[in-house]
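Bumping my old thread because nobody answered last time. Still need a sequence for this structure:
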């Protein structure tokens, strides 16, 4: 379990000195991707349990049944983070563990797991950051209509209140939703994520009820845990034209509209962007948006979480009748998921938020890469591509700070290899390698490099 004490030989080149003493460095995970124990202590199935059980949905028929067994190995995983010098840990809470039927009182045994996790983290000197919804909706709520129905937003606020009430005395950083774009559009439009529906109108209704649930959850958290810092995490993409001319500009407008502005605008009190409302008018009249909803969605936040992985480059579609836009590749090096590596995109997307929206502290709640890691004969895992990825993205973060952006933290995705949704266990994002047969954890070179950076940063704080 202990990380190999040898340090990655790639120097950090003084990068730590670019980050202020109170900058938060950590790692992130999510419940379904790591916990396993899918029916322990009263937990009911989530939409991802049932999605995995449907043939053909997930590569190799992989499931979250065992995942990386974190539910049983939690104390060891916290100890590993302590040894690596993590300042913070962003995890997510499984709704069907805490409120198994998606309604009614909390489940003491399920809450107990997160209660112990928070205590364990605090004892290790690691600040807990919890996401309330990282895609594992209780299946009973999906059977009742899922996110396309308004009731789900109300249920989410109730669940948020239960968590804030139980843990808010110690858990001071709460994120309502992780990447609501994915929940709405991958879950209900393309169907490549749970619950696997293909209904664009339902996806747009889902996006609204996710955002409404976010706003209502902020109210519930503020009531139960007034000292908590509350935010939402969006997956944002800088969006560039692949060529010149009106068609390209319109392709950018559409994709930026639905990926970024559809979420940023209402969260920042501007309601839904009129041009995107017009784009989707052939699908829905947005009758699900009730009076007062947009005010609730705009509940004041303490920070905005941004997840950054790559940039979108778009062109008008060569095939009229499709969604009017094609995604293009520029020939940049890619990660194992085929995403182009573009650290400047991190700079661009965060400075765009700074330029176009009211001022708010920003936290990079996810950034990382999958690569085809190999275990050497001596058991070590050298992942120079991931070291370079982290270094270059942290350099972009340092540039943001230098240019005056109010950036407060960076969480590498992910602490350890885990269940990568429809890709199953085929894509490894961890800075710690997991041998899925034995559950042995081995810090990769990237973990050792990141730990060295964190030591330098802590050294700076202590003035040593
Ligand atoms: O693994 C996911 C995570 O759950 C959400 N953000 C993107 C990661 C990599 O695909």
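Sorry it took so long. Here it is:
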């Amino acid at each position: 379990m202990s990380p190999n004490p040898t340090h990655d030989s790639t120097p950090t080149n003084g990068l730590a000195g670019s980050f202020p003493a109170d900058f938060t460095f950590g790692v992130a995970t999510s419940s379904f991707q790591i916990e396993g124990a899918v029916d322990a202590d009263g937990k009911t199935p989530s939409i991802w349990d049932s999605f995995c059980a449907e043939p053909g949905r997930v590569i190799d028929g992989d499931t979250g049944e065992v995942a990386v067994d974190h539910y049983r190995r939690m104390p060891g995983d916290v100890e590993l983070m302590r040894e690596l010098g993590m300042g913070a840990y962003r995890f997510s809470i499984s709704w069907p563990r805490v409120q198994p039927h998606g309604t009614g009182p909390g489940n003491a045994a399920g809450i107990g797991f997160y209660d112990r996790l928070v205590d364990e983290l605090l004892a290790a000197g690691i600040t807990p950051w919890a996401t309330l919804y990282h895609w594992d909706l209780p299946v009973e709520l999906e059977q009742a209509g899922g996110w396309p129905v308004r009731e789900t937003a109300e249920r989410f606020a109730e669940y948020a209140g239960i968590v804030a009430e139980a843990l808010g005395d110690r858990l001071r950083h709460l994120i309502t939703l992780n990447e609501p774009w994915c929940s709405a559009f991958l879950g209900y439009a393309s169907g490549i994520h749970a619950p696997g529906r293909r209904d664009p109108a339902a996806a747009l209704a889902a996006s609204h009820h996710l955002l409404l649930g976010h706003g209502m959850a902020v109210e519930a958290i503020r009531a139960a845990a007034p000292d908590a810092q509350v935010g939402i995490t969006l997956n944002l993409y800088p969006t560039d034209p692949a060529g010149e001319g009106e068609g390209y500009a319109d392709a950018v407008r559409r994709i930026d509209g639905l990926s970024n502005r559809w979420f940023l605008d209402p969260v920042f009190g501007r309601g839904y962007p009129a041009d995107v409302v017009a784009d989707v008018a052939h699908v829905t009249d947005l009758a699900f948006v009730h009076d007062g909803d947009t005010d609730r969605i705009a509940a004041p936040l303490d920070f905005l979480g941004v997840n950054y992985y790559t940039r979108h480059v778009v062109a008008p579609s060569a095939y009229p009748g499709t969604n009017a836009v094609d995604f293009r590749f520029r020939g940049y090096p890619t990660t194992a998921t085929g995403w182009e590596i573009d650290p400047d995109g991190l700079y661009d997307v965060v400075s765009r938020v700074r330029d176009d929206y009211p001022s708010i502290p920003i936290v990079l709640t996810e950034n990382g890469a999958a690569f085809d890691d190999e275990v050497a004969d001596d058991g070590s895992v050298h992942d120079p591509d991931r070291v370079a990825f982290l270094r270059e993205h942290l350099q972009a973060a340092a540039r943001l700070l230098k240019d005056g952006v109010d950036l407060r933290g960076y969480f590498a995705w992910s602490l350890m290899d885990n269940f990568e949704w429809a890709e199953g266990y085929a894509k490894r994002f961890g800075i710690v390698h997991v041998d899925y047969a034995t559950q042995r954890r081995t810090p990769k070179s990237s973990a050792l490099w990141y730990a060295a950076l964190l030591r330098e940063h802590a050294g700076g704080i202590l003035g040593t």
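Residues 1-6 have pLDDT under 50 and may be disordered. Let me know if any region looks off to you.
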